[in-house]
Amino acid sequence: MISKEEINAALGKGLTQEQLDALHNARVAVVGLGGLGSNIAVALTRLGIAQLYLYDFDRVELSNLNRQYYFLDDIGHYKADALVKHLLRINPYATLHSQVVKVNQENIPELLGDCDIICEALDDASSKAMLVSTVLSTWSDKKIIAGSGIAGFGKAEEITSKKIRKNLYLCGDGSSDFHDLPLCGARVALCAMQQALLAARIILDLEEN
């Protein structure tokens, strides 16, 4: 069995001990474990972030496999359960708080209260808005990274990340709608990587306040 120290060293190759500790101790939530969320969680785990809070109420379907981090033998299983299995194959020492639950205005304080950064990865526009507004109105210190505009086969450089206001960041092209365009796994993953990278930059104090 590979030791915890060996795993941490491999995941944090090239980083200082201070950076390793910051990533390891950060508490990051991923709300929605579909195309964005499942790939965000994988990227965060590979970055050495070992405390993840994962929330989704849906099951894996065959149609998810073109863009979500699941496999044929995951079909029919809850995403919140299937994803944990894959993340532990990357870092068996990670602390994963995963629940099969639909996040709503009432349970947000309980589910996200311990987190430093929240990655929004929901499909429904109204649910996205509800999560963002509730987090911003409930806490003054938590950062939320939202995704918007990931559909189609647009150019990679159209997927950007930017700070919208205090504690709120947005990744995506800001306009493309999956109701009108197909979902390309590579483009969805581009946005997910932007969200994961931004979370790491915030943790490592590389983003302007």
What is the 3D form? globular
Poorly predicted ranges (pLDDT <50, ≥5 residues)? none
Strand order of the largest sheet: 3-2-1-4-5-7-6
Number of continuous helical runs:
7
Sum up the structure in keywords.
209 residues; alpha/beta; 38% helix; 7-stranded mixed sheet
Describe this structure in words.
- The protein has 209 residues and is an alpha/beta fold.
- 38% of the residues lie in helices and 18% in strands.
- The protein is built from seven helices and seven strands; from the N terminus they run H-H-E-H-E-H-E-H-E-H-E-E-E-H.
- The chain has helices at 4-11, 17-25, 35-46, 79-90, 108-112, 125-138, 185-203, and strands at 27-31, 51-56, 95-100, 117-120, 143-147, 160-165, 168-172.
- The protein has a seven-stranded mixed beta sheet, sandwiched between helices.
- The radius of gyration is 16 Å and the shape is globular.
- The model has no long low-confidence stretch (mean pLDDT 95).
